[in-house]
Amino acid sequence: MGKEKNMDEYWHANLRYVGILTSIWFIVSFGCGILLVEPLNSIQIGGFKLGFWFAQQGSIYVFVVLIFVYVWLMNRLDKKFDVHEG
Asked: What global pTM score does this model have?
């Protein structure tokens, strides 16, 4: 029973991380790329409007960073629940 409860806690923590990181990506891609595109377009970076940049590239960069954050969080969680590899 103790091991099963431990794995339930592990799984819930994993789902919490996925939910938070997916929400961040949604806010950046949908919020900055669609909803806030007009205010962000008043700012230019390298000749491109910031709203356009977020819609085309920014959300992809944020997604890649979130992948590395997820790996770091999961490695920490694996060690906490003693399910890490090697």
From this structure: 0.82
